[in-house]
Design brief:
By secondary structure, the protein is of the alpha+beta class. The chain is about 40% helix and about 15% strand. The chain is flat.
């Protein structure tokens, strides 16, 4: 018998159906030479400090840092988890071969391997690796099972991440709580959550310390077209007025005209972060809610695997795209222009070199849209339109730039005229936001050398502070955290990974709510006074900086490739935590963060993540 272990019961039922296993039992399905069972996500976790030493059960500064000589795993304390684990363990004993059918990613590899290790599995293991839950994808995956050893580096990277976060998170949280927390106040510290919180706090400081300044822009109207002064803005109104007095009675002369045809490609397909950003902006959905919806659409076979960090598709997916497009009922008005034409295959979309474990989120061409919730339909609509748009022609336009002078002063005007809307036909005005509204008008025919009267005026403006983060813009900042790092190598690491992983960023934001570190006012995220105080007490800048994640992610990627030793990575984390501990213990300050008056509630987006 062959045992298939999936990550969820719903996935198990689909795989059992494909394999012809139809005999339902308690916790598994069997038939046709297969057992199919499942976990409930994580059944196992790294052991707690008290599992290693009774001295680590109670929080004590003298016990820090806590570094076990060898890390172990245990079952999560839950009756249903224990019962299901026993089912899996018994089936492993009765089976000749195991197929790991966990989600195809680092976390999925960790979940399944820990369960098999805890069950003492000695049977040969193969790996099912699929990007969607369609029947076709599942069958293709079983026809191309991967050897377990091929995924060993991926597992080691996931294990190193888990151990590193354990060592840093548990030790730093106890250290700062004991040193600076009043009356048992827990001050949660983490490799990802603390730099993320620092982004919010730093932005808040920028806003609060911002000093607005007035300035004046000089514009002049010629033949109903606004021309802007090419020089600097005026900090003093009188300086602008002096220029107006010089030019108001002079004629404006056209000195140069340039025209060019431009084109703009369709928006990239969604990865998880960009989908969460879009859903927050357009649908006012939290990052966590978007992830749950995307996971639901995946499990209902409607869209592909959601926990992805690429916006590209493999080149061999192209041959299935026509079938997927034809399956999109309800989008006839957008699909009709594509019929009878050869589908476009752009390197900006289909590129094998941009693919690692998974591809961008797209419709599968399977599943049913009936009985979906309103939010599920809205999220699917965003995904479907992005997919349709990549096969449309580019948006093309004429760009006209006109230069003029008035006396010794230079002016300019520009305009854009649509030639072919292309992919923009798929979206309405609310779907697309642009910063070019002022340029989206046609420019009349001018001739070089022509001149005439004009109407100059000063327009008063005031510098604006940066905006508070929303969940969407915070997710984007986590993804592009390399912008905040000076070191070029670390910036490259963060460019590829950002702070956290796509699948965990929503959970990190939820943790910040739960800890009472951030609150939401309408859509704006604001740091609480306690969070600001905590950040001021953390003297080690690395703990607050994306640099730490940049260092980690760069090395974890090398571990995935087999180019960096896992033990060396763990040893470096241990050394770092020892240094942080010694530095905090040497702090002679007496500042404390008060205990919470009552359990903080999560703000306006729903319940806290448990």
């Amino acid at each position: 018998m062959i045992l298939c272990i999936t990550e969820k019961p719903s996935v198990g039922r689909d795989i059992a159906r494909i394999l012809g296993a139809t005999n339902r039992k308690e916790g598994y399905i069997e038939g046709n030479g297969y057992y199919v069972t499942w976990t409930f996500g994580h059944l196992c976790c790294l052991k707690e400090p008290s599992d290693y030493s009774p001295n680590w059960k109670n929080w004590s500064i003298s016990a820090l840092p806590m570094i076990p000589p060898r890390f172990g795993i245990k079952l999560i304390s839950n009756d249903s988890y224990r019962k299901q684990f026993q089912v899996i363990a018994d089936l492993i004993l009765k089976s000749d071969e195991i197929i790991n059918c966990g989600d195809a990613g680092q976390e999925g590899e960790l979940i399944q391997r820990w369960v098999m290790q805890k069950a003492g599995c000695k049977k040969p293991v193969k790996r099912l690796w699929i990007n969607s839950m369609t029947d076709e994808a599942i069958k293709a995956g079983f026809a191309n099972l991967r050897p377990e050893k091929d995924l060993e580096p991926l597992y080691m990277a996931g294990l190193c991440r888990a151990i590193g976060d354990w060592v840093l998170g548990l030790n730093a949280t106890r250290l700062y709580s004991l040193k600076y927390g009043e009356k048992g106040r827990i001050l949660s510290i983490g490799r990802v959550q603390t730099p993320t919180l620092a982004l919010v706090v730093n932005r808040q400081h920028e806003i609060e310390n911002f000093i607005p300044k007035d300035y004046w822009e000089l514009k002049t109207l010629y033949k109903s077209i606004p021309f802007s002064y090419s020089g600097k803005k005026f900090d003093i109104k009188e300086s602008g007025e002096k220029v107006i007095n010089e030019i108001k009675d002079l004629q404006l002369e056209i000195t140069d005209i340039s025209k060019k045809t431009g084109k703009e490609s369709a928006p990239k397909l969604f990865d998880l972060t960009s989908l969460q950003v879009e859903c927050n902006k357009k649908l006012n959905l939290s990052a966590e809610t978007t992830l749950k919806i995307a996971q639901s659409l995946y499990e209902k076979k409607i869209t592909t695997y959601p926990r992805v960090d690429t916006t590209y598709l493999p080149e061999d997916v192209f041959k299935t795209c026509g079938k997927i497009l034809n399956s999109l009922s309800g989008y006839k008005q957008f699909l009709d222009p594509l019929r009878g034409e050869k589908l476009r295959k752009s390197k900006k979309v289909f590129d094998n070199s941009k693919i690692t474990d998974h591809h961008a989120i797209i419709p599968t061409g399977a599943g049913s849209l009936t009985n979906l919730s309103e939010n599920e339909l809205n999220v699917f609509d965003l995904i479907a339109k992005r997919f349709i748009a990549i096969f449309y022609p580019d948006f093309t336009f004429h760009q006209t730039n006109v230069a003029a002078k008035c006396g010794k002063y230079q002016f300019k005007a520009s305009g854009k005229e649509t030639i072919e809307p292309g992919w923009k036909s798929v979206f309405n005005d609310l779907d697309l936001e642009t910063d070019e509204q002022d340029e989206n008008h046609s420019i009349p025919e001018f001739n070089i050398g022509e001149s005439g009267p004009h109407k100059p005026k000063l327009i008063k403006k005031t510098t604006q502070p940066p905006k508070y983060f929303t969940e969407g813009t915070l997710l984007k900042a986590m993804e592009t955290a390399g912008n905040f790092v000076d070191d070029e190598n670390l910036r490259e690491s963060l460019k590829a990974n950002g702070i956290g992983r796509p699948s965990t960023r929503a959970a990190i934001i939820e943790i910040l709510y739960k800890r009472g570190y951030i609150e939401k006012t309408r859509k704006s995220l604001k740091a609480t006074p306690d969070a600001i105080h905590l950040l001021s007490l953390i003297k080690d800048d690395l703990l607050k900086s994306p640099r730490l994640t940049g260092i980690w992610e760069g090395k974890l990627r090398l571990i995935e490739k087999g180019e960096y030793e896992a033990q060396k990575f763990i040893d470096e984390i241990k050394d770092m935590v020892e240094q942080i501990t010694m530095a905090v213990l040497r702090d002679s300050g007496i500042e404390k963060i008060a205990a919470l008056p009552e359990k903080k509630k999560r703000g306006t987006t729903g319940k806290s993540k448990k």
